[in-house]
Write a structure and sequence with these properties.
This protein has 12 helices and 15 strands. With 334 residues, it is an alpha/beta fold. The protein folds into 2 domains: 2-119 and 286-305, Rossmann fold; 122-274 and 312-331, 2-Layer Sandwich (Dihydrodipicolinate Reductase, domain 2), CATH 3.30.360. Helix 2 (36-42) links the parallel strand 2 (26-32) and strand 3 (49-50). It binds nicotinamide-adenine-dinucleotide.
C-alpha cells in the first residue's frame, strides 16, 4: 500500500482522498489545509489533518503526496516534498509562472523522485478513443485542432475562492494544450493571443474573462483554442468542452459537454456521467488517473505525463497570457 498525504483539501483534495482509499493500492495517512473550513470537512476522513504542509511532512510517514492547492500555490509544497524524497502527483497547471514551474521541475529532477502532472483528460474515454484512432493511422498527420473549454461564470465567482489569482488561461487552457501535444506529438513554436476583460472584474474577480489563442506548431499544425470563464449560468452543464481535430485522412469531433443524459425538471441539465459513483465507489477519468499513479509507484512503471510536460504546458499558457498583454506573438520553440 502506498502511504499518501494530500496538500489542499478542497474539491480535488477530497476527491483524491476517496480515489486513493477506494483504489486498494494506497491509503491516505494524513492531509493538510491552511483553511479552517477545509480542515473541518477533511475531519470526516478520520485521519490526522494538519494546518501546513511542513507539519504534514514532518509528522506523517509518507511515500508520496498529492498537491491539490490552488493554481498559484503548487510550488512550495511540491519543492519541499521533493526535497524530502516524496513522490508526487501535482494538479494542473504545474504553476502559474515560468519561475515556479522551473523550480518544481528542478526540485523533482535533483531529488530523483517520481512525479506525475494531473492532466486527467488523458484518461477521459473520448480522448483515449481519439488517441487510439490516431495511433491506428485512421486520421493521418494532424493538421489543425479547434478546441474550446469554457466554464459558466459561477466557476470563478462561486466555485473557486481564488479565481482572481488564476485565469481561464491557467485553469482551463492546460487541459486542451496538453491534449493537443499528446494527440499530435507536435511541439508549440509560436503563440498569438487576444483576450477580453471586464465582466469578471466588475464582479470583483480581476482576471481575464476569455482568451483566444492561436498556436503554430512543429511539425506544421495550427491550433485555435478558446478558454472563457463567463458563460451564462443557465447552460445545462457547468462547462462547454468541444474538441475538433482534423488530420490528412480523417477527423475527430468530440463534445464532452453532452454526457449522454439530458434531464428535464426545474431546469434543463446535462448530468455528469463521466465521473460517477458506481457500487459505492467513485469512478471516472480522474479516478483512473489516480489509480495509474499509484500503480506506477508500486510497480515502477512510467509516470506520464511528467514534470517536463507540465513545464511545456506552463510555457504555452504563459506565452498566451503574455501575447494577450503585449499584443505580439511569443516564440516558444527550442
Ligand atoms: N475543481 C476542478 O474541477 C478541478 C479540475 C481539475 C483540476 N483542478 C486543479 O486542482 C487544484 C485545486 O483545485 P480545487 O478546485 O480543489 O480548489 P479548492 O479551492 O476547492 O481547494 C484548494 C484547497 O487548497 C487549500 N490551500 C491553499 N493553499 C494551501 C497551502 N499552501 N497548503 C495547504 N492547503 C492550501 C485551500 O484552503 C483549499 O481548501 C487547482 O490547481 C485546480 O486547477 C481543479
Amino acid at each position: 500500500m502506498i502511504r499518501v498525504g494530500i496538500v489542499g483539501m478542497g474539491i480535488r483534495g477530497m476527491m483524491y482522498a476517496r480515489a486513493v482509499n477506494e483504489s486498494g493500492l494506497g491509503r491516505v495517512e494524513a492531509v493538510c489545509d491552511i483553511s479552517e473550513r477545509s480542515r473541518e470537512s477533511a475531519k470526516a476522513l478520520d485521519i490526522p489533518v494538519y494546518a501546513s504542509h511542513q507539519e504534514l511532512y514532518e509528522r506523517a510517514t509518507l511515500d508520496a503526496v498529492i498537491i491539490a492547492t490552488p493554481d498559484f500555490a503548487h510550488r512550495e509544497p511540491a519543492v519541499d516534498a521533493a526535497a524530502r524524497g516524496l513522490h508526487l502527483m501535482i494538479e494542473k497547471p504545474l504553476a502559474t509562472s515560468l519561475e515556479d514551474a522551473a523550480a518544481i521541475r528542478d526540485a523533482v529532477r535533483d531529488a530523483g523522485v517520481r512525479c506525475m502532472i494531473a492532466f486527467e483528460n488523458r484518461w477521459n474515454p473520448a480522448f483515449v478513443q481519439a488517441r487510439a484512432a490516431i495511433a491506428r493511422g485512421e486520421v493521418g498527420a494532424v493538421r489543425w485542432i479547434n478546441a474550446r473549454l469554457n466554464d459558466t461564470i459561477w466557476v470563478p465567482t462561486g466555485m473557486l475562492g481564488w479565481a482572481a489569482r488564476s485565469s481561464p488561461g491557467w485553469f482551463l487552457l492546460p487541459h486542451i494544450a496538453d491534449l493537443a501535444m499528446w494527440l499530435s506529438g507536435a511541439r508549440p513554436r509560436r503563440v498569438y493571443a487576444a483576450g477580453l476583460r471586464g465582466q469578471l472584474s466588475e464582479r470583483g474577480v480581476d482576471t481575464w474573462d476569455a482568451l483566444h489563442v492561436l498556436v503554430e506548431w512543429e511539425p506544421p499544425m495550427t491550433t485555435v483554442f478558446e478558454v472563457a470563464w463567463t458563460l451564462p449560468e443557465s447552460l445545462p452543464n457547468v462547462y462547454d468542452f468541444k474538441f475538433e481535430l482534423v488530420g490528412e485522412s480523417g477527423a475527430l469531433f468530440i463534445d464532452t459537454q453532452d454526457q449522454m443524459v439530458h434531464q428535464a425538471g426545474e431546469r434543463w441539465t446535462y448530468p455528469g456521467t463521466l465521473v460517477s459513483e458506481i457500487d459505492g465507489r467513485l469512478q471516472g477519468f480522474p479516478i483512473w488517473m489516480t489509480q495509474r499513479w499509484l500503480r506506477g509507484l508500486a510497480e515502477g512503471a512510467d509516470l506520464e505525463p511528467g514534470v517536463d510536460q507540465g513545464y511545456a504546458v506552463t510555457r504555452l499558457c504563459w506565452a498566451a497570457h503574455r501575447s494577450a498583454e503585449v499584443g505580439e506573438p511569443i516564440e516558444v520553440g527550442g
